[in-house]
Amino acid sequence: MGELPRPARRLRRLRRTAALRDIFRETRWDVAQLVQPLFVREDDRIEAEIASMPGMRRLTVDEAAAEARVLRELNLRAVILFGLPSRKDEEATGAYEERGVVQEALRAIKADVPELVTMTDVCLCEYTDHGHCGVVVDGDVDNDATVDLLARTAVSQARAGADVVAPSAMMDGQVAAIRTALDRAGFQDTIVMGYAAKHASAFYGPFRDAADSAPRFGNRRGYQMDPANAREALREIALDLEEGADIVMVKPALAYLDVIRAARERFDAPLAAYAVSGEYALIKAAAERGWIDERAVVEETLTAIRRAGADLVLTYHAKDVATWQRKDHA
């Protein structure tokens, strides 16, 4: 038997050592590209612990400001705030009250850590007594009445110090209405990050537990996107950009990497991806059982999201990642 052929091109040469692998690594990410979500409770009688999201807590306003200081010391650059009001009603008044929980948290954070970028969720589900993302009329969410309240909410948040407002209700025309309202109120520099391709995902369960925002009847499939539709996701993104969004988002992240990639190839605007609560909870649960190496899995998933084309990643693991990196350099 003659000598077997030997490969002329040996790609293993470029990954033989850690130093070589680092030199030729194609996709990189930094903690500056991560956004840490925070849940802020208006009433300290609201339960702090979140059973379905180990490591996350519902914070008081003072605790949120203290946490912001810690995050900034870890070199994280941004947070996004979700509010838990002390009362809910049909009109979601807690969302746009000048002294609402998110507005108060914004003021407290900006007073202590002014350089931290503050983002806010612009939605009504956490503030309505029925749990839907808008005003319900005859059993259905009224698009235009909801958009009016979303615009009012965004302005109140900008006035309280939000650098970025992020409409997530998936109402038609929400970005245009918010951009117009912000400009008219003198907040031309406030950034709009549209949850452009937000899918009606089964991965949101732990968030709805954390924010007490599960719908009391029906579901959100009439306004959130069908998970099966990728072309429609690109149309949604295009519309948000036409309406004035500065940043667009795909949500969730891991199950929609194809959408992130398609959006990156089609659009040149800043692109965000949200690694949602269900993704976080799955990793935490497996890590607690010793089935996976949590850090390795988190870093691999962040690499995948960045490799697909996301410029920034909203992730509940942001603080963990920053802490791990701080220990590496201690």
As for the CATH topology, it is TIM Barrel
The oligomeric state is single chain
Gyration radius (Cα, Å) is 21 Å
Number of helices: 12
The string of secondary-structure elements, in order, is HEEHEHHEEEHEHEHHEHEHHEH
Low-pLDDT sequence parts: none
> Tally of extended strands?
11
- CATH second-level architecture: Alpha-Beta Barrel
Largest sheet: 8 strands, parallel, barrel
Describe the protein's architecture and organization.
The protein is α/β, with parallel strands linked by helices. It has one domain: Aldolase class I (TIM Barrel, Alpha-Beta Barrel), CATH 3.20.20.70. The protein contains twelve helices and eleven strands. The chain has helices at 18-23, 61-73, 93-96, 101-112, 143-160, 174-184, 205-211, 230-242, 257-266, 277-288, 294-308, 318-328; strands spanning 34-41, 58-59, 78-84, 117-122, 136-137, 140-141, 164-167, 191-198, 247-251, 271-275, 312-315. Strands 1-3-4-7-8-9-10-11 form an eight-stranded parallel beta barrel, surrounded by eight helices. It has a two-stranded antiparallel ribbon with strand order 5-6. A hairpin with a 2-residue loop joins strand 5 (136-137) and strand 6 (140-141). Helix 9 runs parallel beside helix 11. It is globular and about 80 Å long. The termini are far apart.
